[in-house]
Amino acid sequence: DIVMTQSPDSLAVSLGERATINCKSSQSVLYSSNNTRYLAWYQQKPGQPPKLLIYWASTRESGVPDRFSGSGSGTDFTLTISSLQAEDVAAYYCQQYYSTPPTFGQGTKVEVK
Amino acid sequence: EVQLLESGGGLVQPGGSLRLSCAASGFTFSSYVMSWVRQAPRKGLEWVSTISGSGDRRYYADSVKGRFTISRDNSKNTVYLQMNSLRAEDTAVYYCARGTGGKFGGWYFDLWGRGTLVTVSP
Predict the structure, then answer these.
(1) Torsions phi, psi of B80, nearest 5?
(2) Could you tell me where the beta strands, DSSP code E, fall in chain B?
(3) Rounded CA gap, B24 and B1, in Å?
(4) What does the pLDDT read at residue B81?
(5) I want to staple B30 with a disulfide (CB 3.0 to 4.6 A). Which of A45, A62, A106, B74 is the partner?
(6) Statement: residue B109 has pLDDT above 90
(7) How is residue A50 annotated by DSSP?
(8) Which among A52, A106, A107 has CB closest to B108?
(9) In angstroms, rounded to a whole number, what is the distance separating the alpha carbons of residues A78 and A71?
(10) Do the chains contact at B107 and A97, CB–CB below 8 Å?
(11) Average pLDDT over chain B, rounded to whole?
């Protein structure tokens, strides 16, 4: 199984500042045949189900604010919130879908400093 | 409205059984892979099982293989998870999720239900 490791486990950021979450996979999730990165990001607010933010490593889901962006390649990926808003307080998870079983990172909690 | 609605959770003793249901609406159900993903209390997300749109292919996490069975009824727009030989470590919120992916590899999950809580305890 591919192991997904996120860092940090938690971070506190001031409103309006940038938040950066890292995700590392134990093997590449890049399909070289089509140059596609099989990596998704989710947001989960307390008491709610996860919500898809980003797929194919950098494609924003419809309706997701453009302050959320994804980047990276191969084994190292980043979710960036360019200007933290109060409503962004949540846990964030990365997930690989390069192979079965699909696996998630352990999560990163983002709060307001 | 596009949505998923789970039901069937509850308290069950170790060794017992439970069947979860997930009713889908607002999209062409048979065109999508459907999955179950669980979250133990104060823990992260764990994929449990996936079934293809036609129901001919099923996939399971090692932790539930041989104990859980996923199925679907496309005439009812419903996916099920039959859980047998339940253990304390199966205690979690179980989410139904719609899967999407590419030609290769697995699935990401673009639509989630609100979840149903399963508690396995004496």
Answers:
(1) -125, 155
(2) 3-7, 10-12, 18-25, 33-39, 45-51, 58-60, 68-73, 78-83, 92-100, 108-112, 116-120
(3) 10
(4) 98
(5) B74
(6) yes
(7) -
(8) A52
(9) 5
(10) yes
(11) 96
Other Cβ atoms closer than 10 A to B59: 19
User: What is the per-residue pLDDT for B106?
Assistant: 87
Query: What does the block give as tokens for A82?
Result: 């360019």
Amino acid at A42: Y
A93·B45 Cβ contact <8 A = yes
Tokens of B64: 């539930």
Low-confidence ranges of chain A (pLDDT < 70): none
Compute φ and ψ for A87, nearest 5 degrees: -75, -5
Tokens of A28: 């590449």
Check: CB of residue A68 under 8 Å from CB of residue A103: no
Q: Which residue in chain B has the smallest CA separation from A32?
A: B104
DSSP class of residue A3? -
Structural tokens at position A55: 């797929």
